[in-house]
Amino acid sequence: EPSLACEECEGAEEMPQPLQQCRAWLRAYFWEPASTATLPVPAFHHPLLQRDSFTRQVLWTLLRDVKFGEAVSYKQLAELAGNSRAARAVGGAMRSNPIPIIIPCHRVIRSSGDSGNYGGGQLMKEWLLAHEKLQKEKLQE
Protein backbone atom coordinates (compact mmCIF):
# COMPACT_ATOMS: atom_id res chain seq x y z
CA GLU A 1 0.00 0.00 0.00
CA PRO A 2 1.37 3.41 -0.85
CA SER A 3 1.66 5.28 2.43
CA LEU A 4 2.90 8.62 1.17
CA ALA A 5 1.18 11.12 -1.04
CA CYS A 6 2.73 11.50 -4.46
CA GLU A 7 4.72 14.71 -4.52
CA GLU A 8 4.33 16.77 -7.65
CA CYS A 9 7.29 18.64 -9.05
CA GLU A 10 7.05 22.38 -9.16
CA GLY A 11 6.62 23.48 -12.74
CA ALA A 12 5.50 19.98 -13.81
CA GLU A 13 3.27 21.54 -16.45
CA GLU A 14 6.40 23.05 -18.03
CA MET A 15 8.09 19.66 -18.42
CA PRO A 16 8.68 18.38 -21.96
CA GLN A 17 5.97 15.99 -23.16
CA PRO A 18 8.13 12.83 -22.86
CA LEU A 19 8.86 13.62 -19.21
CA GLN A 20 5.18 14.30 -18.54
CA GLN A 21 4.36 10.91 -20.08
CA CYS A 22 7.03 9.22 -17.98
CA ARG A 23 5.76 10.89 -14.81
CA ALA A 24 2.17 9.87 -15.59
CA TRP A 25 3.23 6.30 -16.33
CA LEU A 26 5.25 5.94 -13.11
CA ARG A 27 2.49 7.48 -11.04
CA ALA A 28 0.01 5.02 -12.54
CA TYR A 29 2.39 2.09 -11.98
CA PHE A 30 2.57 2.74 -8.25
CA TRP A 31 -0.96 4.01 -7.53
CA GLU A 32 -3.27 2.84 -10.35
CA PRO A 33 -1.49 -0.11 -11.98
CA ALA A 34 -4.47 -1.21 -14.07
CA SER A 35 -4.26 2.06 -15.98
CA THR A 36 -0.69 1.51 -17.23
CA ALA A 37 -2.00 -0.70 -20.02
CA THR A 38 -3.96 2.22 -21.46
CA LEU A 39 -1.24 4.86 -21.14
CA PRO A 40 1.18 5.54 -23.97
CA VAL A 41 4.66 4.24 -23.31
CA PRO A 42 6.96 7.24 -22.89
CA ALA A 43 9.21 8.03 -25.85
CA PHE A 44 12.66 6.54 -25.34
CA HIS A 45 15.62 8.30 -26.89
CA HIS A 46 18.41 6.31 -25.29
CA PRO A 47 20.97 5.18 -27.93
CA LEU A 48 20.75 1.58 -26.71
CA LEU A 49 17.08 1.53 -27.67
CA GLN A 50 17.66 3.13 -31.07
CA ARG A 51 20.24 0.84 -32.66
CA ASP A 52 19.42 -2.61 -33.96
CA SER A 53 20.79 -5.18 -31.48
CA PHE A 54 19.80 -8.26 -29.54
CA THR A 55 19.70 -6.15 -26.37
CA ARG A 56 17.17 -3.80 -27.96
CA GLN A 57 15.13 -6.78 -29.17
CA VAL A 58 15.12 -8.29 -25.66
CA LEU A 59 14.12 -5.04 -23.96
CA TRP A 60 11.28 -4.31 -26.40
CA THR A 61 10.09 -7.94 -26.16
CA LEU A 62 10.06 -7.67 -22.37
CA LEU A 63 8.12 -4.40 -22.50
CA ARG A 64 5.60 -5.71 -25.03
CA ASP A 65 5.08 -9.32 -23.94
CA VAL A 66 5.59 -9.67 -20.18
CA LYS A 67 2.58 -8.07 -18.53
CA PHE A 68 2.09 -6.51 -15.12
CA GLY A 69 2.18 -9.18 -12.40
CA GLU A 70 3.84 -11.77 -14.63
CA ALA A 71 7.38 -13.12 -14.50
CA VAL A 72 9.50 -14.81 -17.13
CA SER A 73 12.79 -16.68 -16.91
CA TYR A 74 15.92 -15.51 -18.69
CA LYS A 75 15.62 -18.56 -20.97
CA GLN A 76 11.95 -17.89 -21.74
CA LEU A 77 12.71 -14.27 -22.58
CA ALA A 78 15.54 -15.38 -24.86
CA GLU A 79 13.06 -17.64 -26.68
CA LEU A 80 10.50 -14.81 -26.96
CA ALA A 81 13.22 -12.54 -28.39
CA GLY A 82 14.13 -15.10 -31.03
CA ASN A 83 17.24 -16.88 -29.71
CA SER A 84 16.50 -19.73 -27.32
CA ARG A 85 20.21 -20.23 -26.56
CA ALA A 86 20.86 -16.65 -25.43
CA ALA A 87 19.76 -16.70 -21.77
CA ARG A 88 23.11 -15.23 -20.66
CA ALA A 89 22.79 -12.44 -23.23
CA VAL A 90 19.35 -11.69 -21.77
CA GLY A 91 21.06 -11.19 -18.41
CA GLY A 92 23.41 -8.71 -20.08
CA ALA A 93 20.45 -6.91 -21.62
CA MET A 94 18.83 -6.62 -18.20
CA ARG A 95 22.03 -5.09 -16.79
CA SER A 96 22.06 -2.59 -19.69
CA ASN A 97 18.42 -1.55 -19.27
CA PRO A 98 18.47 2.27 -19.16
CA ILE A 99 14.93 2.61 -17.79
CA PRO A 100 14.11 -0.06 -15.21
CA ILE A 101 10.51 -0.28 -13.98
CA ILE A 102 9.18 1.11 -17.30
CA ILE A 103 11.04 -1.65 -19.13
CA PRO A 104 10.34 -4.13 -16.32
CA CYS A 105 13.57 -6.09 -15.93
CA HIS A 106 12.48 -6.93 -12.37
CA ARG A 107 10.02 -9.40 -13.99
CA VAL A 108 12.88 -11.56 -15.29
CA ILE A 109 13.72 -14.32 -12.85
CA ARG A 110 15.81 -17.48 -12.79
CA SER A 111 14.39 -20.76 -14.12
CA SER A 112 14.53 -22.10 -10.56
CA GLY A 113 12.02 -19.46 -9.49
CA ASP A 114 14.60 -17.45 -7.52
CA SER A 115 14.32 -13.75 -8.21
CA GLY A 116 17.89 -13.36 -9.47
CA ASN A 117 19.91 -10.16 -9.64
CA TYR A 118 18.66 -6.60 -10.04
CA GLY A 119 20.51 -3.32 -10.48
CA GLY A 120 18.35 -1.67 -7.80
CA GLY A 121 19.20 -4.44 -5.33
CA GLN A 122 17.57 -7.69 -4.28
CA LEU A 123 15.11 -6.09 -1.84
CA MET A 124 13.89 -3.64 -4.49
CA LYS A 125 13.32 -6.44 -7.00
CA GLU A 126 11.40 -8.50 -4.48
CA TRP A 127 9.35 -5.43 -3.47
CA LEU A 128 8.45 -4.67 -7.11
CA LEU A 129 7.43 -8.29 -7.74
CA ALA A 130 5.35 -8.34 -4.53
CA HIS A 131 3.76 -4.97 -5.42
CA GLU A 132 2.69 -6.30 -8.81
CA LYS A 133 1.42 -9.57 -7.36
CA LEU A 134 -0.64 -7.77 -4.72
CA GLN A 135 -2.06 -5.24 -7.18
CA LYS A 136 -2.93 -7.97 -9.69
CA GLU A 137 -4.74 -9.94 -6.96
CA LYS A 138 -6.71 -6.82 -6.00
CA LEU A 139 -7.76 -6.31 -9.61
CA GLN A 140 -9.00 -9.91 -9.84
CA GLU A 141 -11.17 -9.65 -6.70
From TrEMBL:
Chief place of localization: nucleus
UniProt keyword annotations, A-Z: DNA damage, DNA repair, DNA-binding, Metal-binding, Methyltransferase, Nucleus, Phosphoprotein, Transferase, Zinc
GO MF annotation list: DNA binding; metal ion binding; methylated-DNA-[protein]-cysteine S-methyltransferase activity
Cofactor(s) this protein cannot do without: Zn(2+)
EC id: 2.1.1.63
Top class in the EC scheme: transferase
Annotated catalysed reactions: a 4-O-methyl-thymidine in DNA + L-cysteinyl-[protein] = a thymidine in DNA + S-methyl-L-cysteinyl-[protein]; a 6-O-methyl-2'-deoxyguanosine in DNA + L-cysteinyl-[protein] = S-methyl-L-cysteinyl-[protein] + a 2'-deoxyguanosine in DNA
Residues of the signal peptide: none
Location of this chain's protein in the cell: Nucleus
InterPro entries in UniProt: MethylDNA_cys_MeTrfase_AS, MethylDNA_cys_MeTrfase_DNA-bd, MethylDNA_cys_MeTrfase_DNAb, MGMT_N_sf, WH-like_DNA-bd_sf
One GO-annotated biological process of the protein: methylation
This protein's GO CC annotations: nucleoplasm
Function: Involved in the cellular defense against the biological effects of O6-methylguanine (O6-MeG) and O4-methylthymine (O4-MeT) in DNA. Repairs the methylated nucleobase in DNA by stoichiometrically transferring the methyl group to a cysteine residue in the enzyme. This is a suicide reaction: the enzyme is irreversibly inactivated.
Database matches in PANTHER family: METHYLATED-DNA--PROTEIN-CYSTEINE METHYLTRANSFERASE (PTHR46460)
Protein name: Methylated-DNA--protein-cysteine methyltransferase
Organism whose genome encodes this protein: Sylvietta virens (Green crombec)
Primary gene name: Mgmt
